[in-house]
TrEMBL record:
EC number assigned by the record: 3.1.2.-
Keyword Hydrolase: yes
Entry GO MF terms: acyl-CoA hydrolase activity
Positions of the Thioesterase domain: 46-116
InterPro entries reported for this sequence: Acyl-CoA_thioesterase_PaaI, HotDog_dom_sf, PAAI_dom, Thioestr_dom
Pfam families given in the database record: 4HBT
UniProt name for this protein: Acyl-coenzyme A thioesterase PaaI
Keywords from the named record: Hydrolase
Gene3D superfamilies: Hotdog Thioesterase
Amino acid sequence: MSKNIMKYLENDRFAALAGIKLVEVKPGYAKANMKITDDHLNAVNIVQGGAIFTLADFAFAAASNSYGQVSLGINANISFFRPPKGNILIAEAKELSSSKKIGNYNVDILDEDGEIIARFNGIVYKKKDEIKID
């Protein structure tokens, strides 16, 4: 199913526009990265918070949909700790808990030195629908 989820998420046009690449998916887990360009910087020349949130949200979507059941975010928050160093950001999403209808995930966002720069927490609602791969 992991390869199918990776193929399915290639259809995420906003993640593609942001330059996000899905690296790994397995049940309850996903890893994605994003190369930082000038387009990701804010007025003070650090990565814009929305770009970091988008990367985390994409990893969250991959991890939460990794079982093949349509799962949609119903709540998300992020805490920023420090600006990143280097040119690559990595988001690693891990399932914290899961029930029949609700899943909770943490996503750590790391810079290329492996330093945590932000943590995202998201909750999904699991629909009855299965993901359809064309």
